[in-house]
Design goal:
Shape: flat
Number of domains: 1
Largest sheet: none
Distance between the termini: 58 Å
Oligomer: single chain
Order of helices and strands: HHHHH
Number of strands: 0
Length: 144
């Protein structure tokens, strides 16, 4: 029998349990929340079909849940993220754009949240006026 197939000894099990106990002692809830947000964003990217080879995994409802979950958790730890917070917010914005495209019936979300070649040219923002996402009706509004 090889080392991978044999049952661990009681001593090995106790050592492993002690290791886990030490990891739990050092683990912070904030770490778990951040990891959960990152997991939701990554899974959302797959459900949006943004990564090459994931086009068949598109699922707008799963994408919506991933976005809603990440948006709900982000305020809990945002102040502790530092510069990483911006990267998470940008990734979440890309998912929201992809969702808007899928929900609008486009069926395909372009990688990086970019629109395809037939997209209308962007209009410059009017100071104090609605931005392009809001005026086009593609602004993400939770629960809508």
């Amino acid at each position: 029998m090889s080392d991978q197939q044999r049952q661990p000894t009681e001593e090995e099990m106790r050592a492993y349990a002690a290791q886990l106990e030490e990891q739990m002692r050092q683990l912070r809830v904030e770490d778990v929340v951040v990891q959960t947000i990152v997991t939701l964003v990554n899974l959302g990217g797959r459900r949006a079909g943004l990564a090459p080879g994931t086009e068949s995994e598109r699922d707008p409802e799963q994408l919506r849940l991933a976005i809603e979950g990440a948006r709900a958790l982000l305020p809990l730890i945002e102040s502790e993220l530092g510069p990483d917070g911006q990267a998470i917010r940008e990734a979440l914005s890309q998912l929201q754009m992809a969702y808007a495209q899928l929900a609008a019936g486009g069926g395909e979300a372009a990688p990086g949240g970019a629109e395809g070649p037939a997209a209308e040219p962007e209009q410059p923002e009017q100071p104090g006026g609605p931005g392009p996402a809001q005026s086009s009706g593609r602004l993400w509004v939770p629960g809508q």
